[in-house]
Amino acid sequence: MDVTEVEPRVKPLPYKVKATSRESPAQKASHLLDTDLRNHWSTATNTKEWILLELDELEFLCATYSNASCGAELAGQQDYRRVPLRTIEIEFSFLARSTPLDLASEGSCRSLILEAVRDDIMEPCLLSHIRIYNKSVLEWEISVGLRYKPETFVKLHPRCEAPRREMIYPMNYTPCRYVRISCLRGNPIAIFFIQLIGVTVTGLEPEFQPVVNYLLPYIISHKKDAHDMHLQLLQDVTNRLVAFLPQLEADLNSLSDTAEPYIRFLAMLAGPFYPILNIVKERLVHLLIACSCMFFLVDFQGFAWIVVELSMYVYFMDDMCSHIIC
Fold first, then answer.
1. How far apart are CA 258 and CA 190, in angstroms?
2. Model pTM?
3. CA atoms within a 13 Å half-sphere pointing along the CA-CB vector of 253
4. Residue span of the structural domain in which 16 resides
5. Would you give the end-to-end CA distance of the chain in angstroms?
């Protein structure tokens, strides 16, 4: 069964192997990304092994950016995943023209910028399904999480039998950035390949969980709709308002069963009011460029993040954003 045909809005998600308890020299964990059944991951052991997968966009983006000598080269690319890098190039050029500081070389500045956005480029998702082609695992469990804290991962499939064939497990559109597969018994423990399937939700953080809880029943009930407005609302809210989480977090934590008015408020912020927030953000950027003593600027996915040496500027920005949101 091809899940993407039944649910047109989902797609296979790129990932990388972040960690593993063990791998044999010939059957490495990286083989899990290859659908060729001549390759597989094996630990050459029989009990209690695990592997941790992480959604991955960083390597593709960094390679694209490092190979581009100017913003014009990126401007010609149509892949949506390359848009943030085009924005970074524009901001870098703006810094070079505007700041009186003696910054490091262009290459050093690029490495600073890429390091600063490393966490944001690892795009989270709503995980719809996980496809596993098992070789010889007998029992396993599957857990997922948004942050790299395995002790907080949610067990979506507790200890269960692992059939020796291809299996597709439903994951119920669970917010996810990490997937951990614990292989409890095997003869030996070995898997051919793993495929993660879902919908990318840029900016999705654990603080948005109350919003996900409210919208998820609607998203699931419209899973065959490629243009579901509830999913689009969630994507707009997380993508556009993640920069304002410090100001929104208290209200998000206090959401109750009567959350609809606040969800409507977030929809207004991410929709009609967002140009106002964007204008304020741009004015703050220009003000801080004129005043700060040491900084670097990264504009990524529509938001400006500013690192300044003097704490008064951070306080000023936070205070201004609070006034806008209130």
1. 48
2. 0.69
3. 6
4. 3-56+123-200
5. 49
**Euclidean distance between CA atoms 157 and 173, whole angstroms:** 14
CA–CA distance, 42 with 74 (Å, rounded to integer):
40
* Residue 275: CB atoms within 10 Å: 9
Question: Of 272, 277, 285, which is closest to residue 248 (Cα–Cα)?
Answer: 277
**Closest residue by Cα to residue 266 from 239, 288, 293:** 239
Please tell me whether residues 268 and 280 are part of one structural domain.
no
- Give the total number of structural domains in the chain: 3
Identify any residues that bridge with 144 across adjacent strands, giving them in sequence order: 154, 179
Residues in the chain: 326
Query: Is cis: bond before 124, omega within 30 of 0?
Result: no
Residue-wise DSSP of 274-311: HHHHHHHHHHHHHHHHHH-SSEEEEEETTEEEEEESSH
Burial zone of 48 (CB within 10 Å; 0-12 exposed, 13-18 middle, 19+ buried): middle
Is residue 19 scored above 50 in pLDDT?
yes
CA-nearest of 174, 191, 179 to 139 is: 191
Question: Which residues partner with 179 through β-bridges?
Answer: 53, 144
pLDDT tens track for 267-310:
998 988 888 777 776 776 666 555 553 444 443 333 333 333 33
pLDDT in tens, 170-222: 999 999 999 999 999 999 999 999 999 999 999 999 999 999 999 999 999 99
Is residue 175 located within the same domain as residue 136? yes
Which of 153, 177, 200 corresponds to the end of one domain? 200
Residue with tokens 């051919």: 192
For residue 173, give the amino acid letter. Y
Q: Are 39 and 26 in contact (CB under 8 A)?
A: no
Tell whether 98 and 226 lie within a shared domain: no
